[in-house]
Amino acid sequence: MNEVVKKIFCNSRVYSALVALPLLALLIAWMPKWFFLLLLLVILALAMHESWPMFFGERGGFLLHGPVWAISFLMLLAAYWGGTVGLTGSLALALLILVLLLFEAGLESEALPRFALALLFVVYLPFFFSHLLLIWDLPHGRALVALLLMVTWGGDAFSYYCGSYWGKRKLSPRISPNKTIEGFVAGLFGGAFFAVLMNWLGFIDVAWNELAALGVAANFCGQLGDLFESFLKRSHGIKDSGSLIPGHGGFLDRIDSVLFAAPVIFYASTLWIF
């Protein structure tokens, strides 16, 4: 037991979380929407900088780099001003622009794979990430943003520690050797736990069982997002996307689960809960 306690509290992941989570809670409670947009733009830029080499290596080139970055920021702005319609329209525009750039690239052998990667990049990062702005506009929007962070990051803590101490069966040894089935299940439990906690604290006035189901679904997709980023990193032989956050790596390492969970929170809340 002493070793368990020592590993938990002598870990930079814990100290980063102890600093970051209260700060984020205060920011979500205080910040206006325009400030939330600026924060997301900064995080998106950092995550794109970290992930660009994992998608394109040295082959992205100026033909892709400028337009894809412009499209990415446009998506956040479209979601900010136009909501769901704006975001959908910006994705359609992104596809049109990428097709035009593909024609410009000609018939070189790597043109189609490279532009397919560009479309995946646009959907994976700015499109998924823009759903945080859509969530913000929902009833209980600020609380749902907090719920998103709690079920992904809190569930990740459950997964990490339970997998470290009780995990025996590997979940996906080729993609993420340290992840276990036991840790995956613990993460789902953590997602449900933090969702019910939000209900118990009175932040979201929704039946606890519905929130628990939402927490499980969001954490499940969040863990898929974490595995997807692990796939990207392992395919390029790197451990972390960056080193800006002690114990967690880069910004992409922190938002990889949020990216996949955000659409779940938004569409479930829109079509089912509210």
What does this structure look like?
It is built from ten helices and two strands. The protein is mainly alpha-helical. It has two domains: 1-30 and 138-274, no CATH class; 32-131. The protein has a two-stranded antiparallel sheet with strand order 1-2. It is globular, with a radius of gyration of 19 Å.
Q: How many beta-strand runs?
A: 2
Largest sheet: 2 strands, antiparallel
Low-confidence stretches: none
Average pLDDT score? 84
- The structural class is mainly alpha
Counting structural domains, the number is: 2
Can you write the helix and strand succession as a string? HHHHHHHEEHHH
Note the beta-strand portion. under 5%
Q: How large is the radius of gyration? A: 19 Å
Number of helices: 10
Q: Note the overall shape.
A: globular
* Separation of the first and last Cα atoms: 44 Å
Widest β-sheet, arrangement of strands: 1-2
- The portion of residues assigned to helices is over 70%
Keyphrases for this structure?
274 residues, mainly alpha, 2 domains, two-stranded antiparallel sheet, 10 helices
Care to give the gist of this entry?
By secondary structure, the chain is mainly alpha-helical. The chain is 80% helix and 3% strand.
Write the layout of secondary structure elements.
Blueprint: H1 2-9, H2 12-30, H3 33-56, H4 61-105, H5 111-129, H6 131-136, H7 141-166, E1 170-172, E2 176-180, H8 181-200, H9 208-235, H10 251-273
Antiparallel strand pairs: 1-2
